[in-house]
């Protein structure tokens, strides 16, 4: 059991997500749907946490017990408390993996880790999206076809206000004429970061097996190589004689 | 005059390009069309060179007098002699800029400089292409709209077998459902490299002002910061006492 | 005059910097010493701003009138107000260049823009430092020798907790046995970022011509390519018919 | 057994390496010393191949049966036949990992894969070298101390003529005053590449446990994620109606 990857799927899960149009797709919330498919992989143990939990679901106990945090948020980005954002960021810097889904591009943790605004264009027209694997050799693309279709998705468009990534794993084509780098990898000190675009709450993207596979792969890629304790800049003794 | 950027536009310009369907679009060859629009910029002085010139248009004299080489080739990649490829590569490593256009993705100099195969998917269907500026802050994207249309272009598709670039300047949307990273920057030692996808010989892409602007911008970006002579790995004296 | 680069050199300039050991080296403060050598370049117009100024020297008026901000801070990182940090970060994302000097590795703006902690090892032993140009073709290295000596500098050591940079311009050798990536470039949306290690307040690094040249070069490299207004994620109309 | 990583250690192993000063350190050649310590890891099965073997030790059969190729060469770089270099490069592009040791910086396969000259400064003075882990979170740095000493090594110095790496894992300090990026990662299509500086033939670097650990880690990092067959650019059918 010691190699099982411990995942926490964080979600706002406030009233909009509990209303009929979303609840008909994700009756128990997106977080539980995501945790459920992750738990079908014997190498993963996924739990959930939501913004109305104590410490907004981001206690030290929760994060200490999390190898990879999956983040879904949209309308309540601004409500996540700054000291909790800083706590998440610190855990990533010290090794916890993090996967940002869909509208998390504007979440405080993603903006804090990437240093950018997450700017993009958008359109909610239920249009067709084709996701292309631009880096087929990347671990996150294994078992994923060269191209797959999401029948209805919110459109996100370039230019995407993020740093040039370490790896451009997926690029999406949208029926209405737009393109978007939809799967991107970053490293921030000890922590690995993956952004993945699909998952508007009114469409069933997280029920689609190929998308489940991408997120499962991403969890495995983002698990900590090693994890370190809090640290301050150390004063170091000289190794060689100075002023000899 | 000393700050004028000296450009050489290299082209195969063999019989296919002189036949009616191409010649009707580029009566004097693609190279002369490209040189002509570059020469409208007072900061650029562009000449041409073709595969049937002495030393295949790639003599030391030509390259020494070139700040930025623009490369268009397609059917005769294999005919470019290896020692001339090496000469081009050496000039880039020592500071000469190079711009690879369209099917130059499989040219020997591009493969030698990037280390990859230039693998991609393709389709010749005269379809619509939308080019998106993914890096609107990049010098090559200045004055270029967020998105522009090429009415008819050969389709190139991801996955594109190139290294993760230093900058992803453009990404293209194709009518038939594909995407492609169509404007990419690299650095190899002292030389700057830009790959730009548009320009199949049977369509008039190089007559389109926005494409002319991209290539003009790219020439200015790729001009040498500094240029060095041939060099071998130097033996260096110790700066500090060893074994003290 | 319109092409002159407007620089603001920001400094804490609180009591420690006004005490004899620092004041003997920088009688008017490090900020004024830096601005003075920048102003010797006819292409640069440099002013100063300090933490005790209104809005901590970071008013919208100051930043709007700044092409490149140079940041020196050490003991008072924590005192810079968060909304002003956010203002600086927003200006960088929208095109303002920024140069972080020495202990700015732990400043709030640098950590916010890079997403990392700025972790490093240090030693204050007045030891010799040799700065090597690892990217001699980079604009910031022009006119700088392959290696130069700083006779006495605070030591900073790897591992340096920053993202893999876009360019590793300088790497430093320290007498006591350490190495440090001492000149690093990043881009965050429209803004360019340069970190440069030399400049502990009790040593005269900023009086050394080669260091003045590096910072002058960095200002020219970091000046905005273009600068944009505040922006939110735009809703975009479809360019192609959806659901045809 | 099916998960065992198959390694081939390639070496020139010509007369210089069989002479007393080298043979006293590596009696059976560097290749056999390297294979021997790799074989102590139960997850690795390492064989050897040398330039005097049929097809210079680089037959299709050898490469097909190799997950990760380790390359040591120095005086006979020029003797490796170009079609065999191309074969190695093709295998890397299709997924085989490759580790370049020491003077392999100027080998034909490394120059072909990186696109650069491998330029560097050097000095053979048997000086002390300190290797710093600049990316302690990288898989190749696991179990390696923050800094370790090689008592006697050939000096290699910046500037190092290679592309900006995907990861700067190690940076070395040399007693004589130089620095060098001594452990660098790259990806070329499906293949992973690691360059590691230690290993001059007249010093016992490959007998040092920490260096054995780095190379063992590197083999595990470089093993193929997936491996593909030879491929040409495919013509692709349209997925969407064109000219609708």
Write up what this structure looks like.
The structure is a homotetramer of 244-residue chains. By secondary structure, the first copy, chain A, is α/β, with parallel strands linked by helices. In chain A, 23% of the residues lie in helices and 30% in strands. Chain A has helices at residues 15-18, 20-23, 30-39, 60-64, 82-93, 108-114, 209-222; strands at residues 5-11, 44-50, 68-72, 97-101, 121-133, 147-157, 167-174, 179-188, 191-196. Chain A has a nine-stranded mixed β-sheet, with helices on both faces. In chain A, strand 8 (179-188) and strand 9 (191-196) form a beta hairpin. In chain A, helix 5 (82-93) packs across helix 6 (108-114). Chain A starts with a strand and ends in a 22-residue tail after the last helix. Chains in contact: A-B, A-C, A-D, B-C, B-D, C-D. The interface between A and C is large, with 46 and 46 residues.
What distinguishing features does this structure have?
9-stranded mixed β-sheet; alpha/beta; 9 strands; globular; 244 residues; homotetramer
